[in-house]
Design brief:
Elements: H1 7-17, H2 19-34, H3 38-51, H4 55-62, H5 66-72, H6 81-95
Helix pairs in contact: 1-2, 1-3, 2-3, 2-6, 4-5
């Protein structure tokens, strides 16, 4: 069955009309990183950057070239922890939310 809408367009529109969805995507990206799924986390974070702050503004905030940020958040990207923290911080500030980590005893 063919898709009727492009996935990225759907995410973009949903983020713009639903702040809780944008916050949930940020939380999901962080959770994926912490649970050992960095490739998927980078893709979620990339979609969120595109839908919120944009790569040009992110480049200004992080003082990193836009092309480098695109590569960092690509499927084969390998951002340093400092760069990843800066990206999360910029998106978090754009959304005006905080992130908290909680451990769960297994």
């Amino acid at each position: 069955m063919a898709l009727t809408r492009h996935f990225k367009e759907t995410v973009l529109e949903r983020v713009h009309r639903d702040e809780a969805f944008a916050t949930a995507l940020l939380d999901e990206a962080a959770t994926l990183f912490l649970n050992g799924e960095p490739e998927t986390a980078r893709l979620v974070l990339r979609d969120l950057v595109n839908a919120t702050i944009g790569f040009e503004q992110l480049a200004e905030v992080t003082e990193k070239p836009s092309k480098s940020l695109h590569r960092m958040l690509s499927p084969k990207g390998n951002p340093s922890m400092d760069n990843l923290a800066a990206i999360f911080c910029a998106v978090r500030e754009k959304l005006n939310v905080t992130l908290e980590a909680h451990s769960v005893a297994i």
